[in-house]
Amino acid sequence: MKRIINLDINGQAHEVAVGPHYTLLQVLRDELGLLGTKKGCDTGGCGCCTVLVDGKAMYSCMIFAMATQDRKITTVEGLADNAVLDPVQQAFIEAGAVQCGYCTCGMIMTTKAYLSSVGSHVPDDLEARRAIAGNLCRCTGYQKIVDAIRLAASRRIVAGSEKG
Amino acid sequence: MSETSIIGTSVLRPDAYDKVTGGRGFPVNVRLPGMLHGKLLRSPYPHARILRIDTSKAECLTGVRAVLVPSEVPKKKFHPVFFSPGMAASMIPDMLILSDTVRFAGEPVAAVAATSPEIAEEALDLIHVDYEQLPFVLDPEETMKQGAPQIHQHAPNNIAMNPSFAFGDLEKGFEEADYVFENTYQTQRVHTCYMEPRVCVVDSDTFGNLTVWSSTQHLFGLREKLASALDIQVSKVRVVRPPYIGGGFGGKLDIGFIEPISALLSMKTRRPVRIEQTRYEDFITTARNPFKVVLKTGVKKDGTFVARSAKSILDTGAHATHGAVVLMVHGMYGFLLPYRCPNSKWEGFTVYTNNMIGGGFRGYGVPQAAFAVESQIDEICEKLQLDPIEFRLKNSHSEGQPHPFDPSSKLDTYRFADCLKQGAEAIGWSNGRSRARGTGTKRRGIGLACQPLWVSGCVGFPDIYEHSGAVIKLNADGTADLSMATIDMGSGQITTLSQIAAAELGVPAGAVRMTYADTETVPFDAPSHASRVTYSAGNAAKVAAGAAKKRLLEVAGPMLKTTPDNLETGGGRVYVKGAPDRSLPIADVVKQAESPYVRMVPDGMQRTSLQEKGTVIGVASLAPTANPSPATAEFVEVEVDTETGEVKVLRVVYAHDIGRVINPAGAEGQVEGGFQQGMGYALMENLVFDQENGACLTADFLSYKMPTALEMPPEIKSVFIESNEPTGPFGAKSLSEPCAIVPAPAIANAIYDAIGVRIRELPITPEKILTALGKLSE
Amino acid sequence: MPSAAVKEFLQPSSPQEVVELLVKYRERALVVGGGTFLHGIIARGLLGQMDVLIDLQKVGLSYVKYEHDTLCIGATTTFAELAASERVQNSPELGAVLDALCYPPAQIRNMATVAGCVASATPLFDLPVALMALDGAVRAAGPKGSREIGLHKFYLDYFEHVLERTELITEILVLRQPSRSASAFLKLETNANDLALLNVAVRITVDKKGTCRDARVVVGGGIGKVPVRAVSCEDVLKGQYPTAALLKESGNVVAFDIHPVSDYRTSAKYRSTVAKVFVRRALLRALDRLGMQLDEPS
C-alpha cells in the first residue's frame, strides 16, 4: 500500500507516494529523478549512495524512505550554488580525484559531513583515510581523494582567516 | 602557448565538473518514455538441462508485458568478445542468448519485461522451470580427466584450446643449466568491481532497428556482437556513445546476456527495455579467471636463462568468452617474450568447467603469469645470491634490438634499465635489502617485480581489431568538437584525446570538447582496452586534428597574405612563422571559412573567396604502424605482523618507460588505481563458490574484500621515464595495465624479504603466512 | 532492493506503543533500529512471514545517561552518539566500548543503533562482545512489564536471544565498573568494512599495587554460535601481577574455552592462533589505559 510522504531534500519539499519498503535511494533516483546519488551495490557495502541526513553521512540504500520524513536530507544536488561549486567539489576536481566518477558523489558527501564535524582541523593522511573507509573506489587508489579532502580542509582555514 | 604547455600538463578533466555535481552522463541514468524493466531468471544449478519452462503465471501478472524463453532466441552460436570479429578463427563461438542447457550457476534461463523492476522480479518467482540436473565439475584439472562431465560438444576432455610454442632446444638447455628450478603457482578468481553496474537500454522500431545505450567499453563491438547474437545485419544496430561510463577495467568488453535479451524484449513489446544488473549479478557475470602455472627454469650460475618451460592451465568457466585470447596473451606477454632465453617452451590449456564465465580484467592473463615468473626470479636470485636487478638486466631485451613478438620492428625506445635504476634509487633499494631481517614481531621487507614488455594497442595480433578514427571540426568561437567512438571509462581518455587534439591544432586545452557520437556518425574505434587509447586513438585524434589544421591554414594563408606552409598555430592563433606579430585568432579564420561568400558592405557587395568556404574539418581513420613496448619496475616495502600474518604495504615506487606523459595527474592516477587492484589481488580478493552447488558465496562488497582507503599505503610514488617514442602521439606509449600487473609479485617478493617464506598461491592471506611460518596452533 | 513483501511501516511514538504493536502483529512484526542489519536480511529474502516493520525513531530512546551509577544507553542511540558521549570518551573502564565503536565506517556509525546491534544476536558483531566484558545487561519492556537480563545469559544461538517476540529492548545497561578497571577491544578484519573474523574484549581490574583482582575475557567473531567468556584466560590473571609473560600465558589458554569454526573466510586454526595473540594484546591495551606499561617479550 503506497502512502504519500513529504521529504525535505536540499531544502525543498517533495511530496511522493512510496511503498513501505522503498529505500531513500530508490525514491531519490526512481521517484524524484535526483540521479546524483548512485547505486553501487544496494547493500550498504560501497558508499556510492551516501547522502546526509541531518548532516550525518548515511547509506541511502539502507534507509527506509518513510523513516526520513522529518529529517533534513542533503544530496550532491544540494551542494553547488548554481555554477559556484562547493569547496569540496572544487577540491576534488583540482586534486585529480575524479576518474570514472561513479564513487565521487558519495565520496564528496562523506567528506562534507566529515569536515563539518571536525571544525577547522586539517586531517592528516590517516584521518582522511579513516573518514572515507566506508566508500569504495576502484579507479583512483584513493590517493588523490585523500589529497582532495586535505586540500578542501586546508582551504577552510584560509577562507576562515580571510573572513577575519 | 606551445605544445609543451598542453602535453605534459595536468589539465583538469573536462568531465570532472559534471561528475562532481551529479554525473548525468552515466548509462545507468538513461531513461526513456514508456520504458519497461527487464529481469533475468538465473539457474540455481551449475549444470542442468531445461526440460520445461512454464511462464503462464508470470505472463498473467499485472504489469508484465513480455516473457522470453530459450526457444525464442536465435540458434546460431556466437562469441561475445568485442575486440575480435565474429567469425575469427581463433575465437570460440559457444554461446546462445538463452540456452536450454545451463552450464554455470547463475546462467540466465528466461527473462521478463514489466512496467517496474519490482513487478519483473515478482514475475521471475512465477516462472516454473523443470531442470534435469547433470553432473558438474568445478576443478580445472579434474575437468580434463576421463569420465568428467562433458560441458560442450565441441571440446573433448573439456579442453577448449591447447596451444604450445617452442624455441631452440629445451632439453639441451636444461642440460647446460647449472641450476634448475621447478615451482608451481596458483592464482584465484577475482572480480573486476567496476562501480557502475552492467546496464543497458535497448529501443526498437517496427523495422527491427535497434538503438542501444549501455555501460560498455566498445561502441562498435557492441554493435557487431549484438547483431551477431541476434543474427541481424550490423546496420540495424545503432549504439550511442555514453559521455563516460563508471569503470570497466576489461569487465565490459563483451556483450553480457543483458543487451541481446533487452533487444529481444524490446522487439516483442515495441517499447524500450532497460536491464540493470544487481551487484550480485555483476559478481557472477565477469571475472579474471584462475591460472595454475608450472614453471621449470634452468639458469647458469651467473643468472643467465638457458632453458625455460611453462605449462599454464586457465579455468575459463562455462563458456570460453575471453579464454582463447587471455591464454595467448598470458603465454606470450606473460611468459615467452618479456625476457630473453635461447631455449623455451610454453604450453597452455583453456579448459571448461561449470564455474562462472570470465571476462577481461586489466592485464588480461598476464597478472597471473607475472606472479609466477617474477616470484620465481626472486627465488632464483635468493638461492644463487644474485641481485634481482642485475639478474633481470642480464636477461632482458635492450633498446634498438628486434621486438620479440615482431622481429621486423625494433624496440625503438626501451628504457627498462632506467626503470630499474631510478625505481631502486627512489625506494632506497640497496639500504633496504642489506638490512638484517630482524627478529621483532613486525618485520619489514622490500620486493621488486617487473613487466619488461607490454603493448600499446593490438596491431600485429591475430584476429584483434586495431584501428581508430576521429572527426574534428572547428567552431567560429575558436573551440573544436572532437567526435570519436572512444569510450572513457575513467582512465581519462576524453582528457588525453582532447589534449592531444588541442596541442596538434594549436588551441588551448579547454577549447577541444569531446562530443556526441554513435556508430552511425563516427569512424570505427577498437575498444578502450589493451592500454591502447593514448597511443592508437590518440594518434587518430592527432591525425584528424592535423587535417583540420591543414584546412585551417589553407583558409588563413590569404588572410595573412602568405602561403599555408609559412604558417603555424599556437595559443588559439594562426601566425606567420618567424613573425608572431602577424597573426589572427583561429576563431576569425573559422568565421571567414563559414561566412557567406558575398556580403553586404556600406558601398555595395563584397566577394570573398569560394575556395575558403566550408566547415574546417579533419577526419582520420587509420591503424597504427607499430606496437611499441613500455617497460615497468615496481618496488614495494611491506611490514608483516608475524603473530597475525597481517601485511601492511608501507611504500611503493613505480617506474615506467611511458614515452611521453600527456597528463601527469592522470598518469599517476592510473598507477595508484592499478596498485589498489594489484594489492587487492595479492592480499585479499577472492571469488569463492560453494563446491557443492557452484553458488557464489562472495557476491557483495561485505564478503568480497577489496582494499579501502585504510588498507592502501600512504605513499605511491610514480617515476615516469620519457623515452619519446617516435611512432607515438607526441612521443607517448602506453601505461595502464602494467601498473596493475606488477603489484602482486612485488608484494609477494617483499613478504619473502621480510619473513623468509615463499607463498606461491594468491591471495596471500594472513592465514597462509602463519601457516608458512609454522605458527598455526591446534 | 528490499522485497515488496513488506506491507506496513509503522512509527510508534513510545516504547509502550511498540510493545502493543508487537503483541498485535507477533510473527509478522520486525523492529527496525538503524536498519543496517535488517537490510541484509531483506536483501537475502529472509523475511519469511515478517511483513510489518516497526520503526523506533520516534519512541524517545536515544540518550546516554546515568541512573545512579549505571550507564543507561537508550536502545536507539547510534554508535556515533554513544562514541561521542563524554563518559565513553574519557573512562578507561569503558575503553572496550569506545574501541568497538571506532571500527565501522562513518555511515554505519551514524545509522546503527546500540540495541539493534545487540538484538541481532550475531557473534560477528563487535559491540555486544565489548559490552559483555563489562558485564553489560539488556533492559526489555514487554506486555508483562520490564526486566533486565545480563548479556552473558542473553544469547542462545545464531540470531537467537532469550527475549519473547513481544518484548522490546529499551536500554543497554552498564553497571558501575569496579574501581581501577580498564577495558579494551580488538577486532581481526580483512579490510575496514568487515565483520569480525575474530574479536576480543577484555576488562582488567587491579588493586593499589597493580595486582589483578578480577578480569573478563570475551571472544567473539567466528568462534561459534554466541560470544564466549574465556574463563581460563581470566583465571590465569586473577591474583597475579601483570607481566608480559603472564599476559602471554593468559592468551595461550584461550584455546580451552573457544571452539572456532572454519568457513570460507578463514580456518578454525587461524582463529585459535590469533585469539591467543589478541587476548594478550587487548590486555596490554587495557593495562596501558591504567597507566601500566609492560615490556613486550621479543
Tally of domains of chain A: 2
- How much of the polypeptide of chain A forms β-strand, as a percent range? 15-25%
Residue share in helix of chain A: 25-40%
CATH class of the largest domain in chain B: Alpha Beta
Oligomer: heterotrimer
Describe what you observe in this structure.
The complex is a heterotrimer of chains A (about 160), B (about 775) and C (about 300). In chain A, strand 1 (about 5-10) and strand 2 form a beta hairpin. Chain A is built from 5 helices and 5 strands, in the order E-E-H-E-E-E-H-H-H-H. Chain A has helices at about 25-30, 85-95, 105-115, 125-130, 145-164, and strands at about 5-10, 10-20, 50-55, 55-60, 70-75. Chain A has 2 domains: about 5-80, Ubiquitin-like (UB roll); about 85-165, DNA polymerase, domain 1 (Orthogonal Bundle), CATH 1.10.150. Chain A starts with a strand and ends with a helix. Chain A is an alpha+beta fold and about 160 residues long. The mean pLDDT of chain A is about 95. Chain B has about 775 residues and is α+β, with helices and mostly antiparallel strands. Chain B folds into 3 domains: about 5-25 and about 465-620, Aldehyde oxidase/xanthine dehydrogenase, molybdopterin binding domain (Aldehyde Oxidoreductase, domain 4, 2-Layer Sandwich), CATH 3.30.365.10; about 35-365, Aldehyde Oxidoreductase, domain 4 (2-Layer Sandwich), CATH 3.30.365; about 380-455 and about 625-770, Aldehyde oxidase/xanthine dehydrogenase, molybdopterin binding domain (Aldehyde Oxidoreductase, domain 4), CATH 3.30.365. Chain B is about 25% helix and about 25% strand. Chain B is built from 19 helices and 29 strands. In chain B, the strands form 7 sheets. Chain B has a 7-stranded mixed sheet, with helices on both faces. In chain B, strands 7, 8, 9, 14, 15 and 16 form a 6-stranded mixed sheet that branches. In chain B, helix 8 (about 325-335) packs parallel to helix 9. Chain B starts with 15 loop residues before the first helix and ends in a 6-residue tail after the last helix. Chain C is α+β, with helices and mostly antiparallel strands and about 300 residues long. Helices cover about 30% and strands about 25% of the residues of chain C. Chain C has helices spanning about 15-25, 35-45, 80-85, 85-90, 95-100, 105-110, 115-120, 125-135, 230-235, 245-250, 270-290, and strands at about 10, 30, 50-55, 65, 70-75, 135-140, 145-150, 155, 160, 170-175, 180-190, 200-205, 210-220, 230. In chain C, a hairpin with a 5-residue loop joins strand 12 and strand 13 (about 210-220). In chain C, helix 5 (about 95-100) packs antiparallel against helix 8, helix 9 runs antiparallel to helix 10 and helix 10 (about 245-250) packs antiparallel against helix 11 (about 270-290). The longest helix of chain C has 22 residues, at about 270-290. The mean pLDDT of chain C is about 95. Chains in contact: A-B, A-C, B-C. The interface of A and C includes residues 21 and 64 of A.
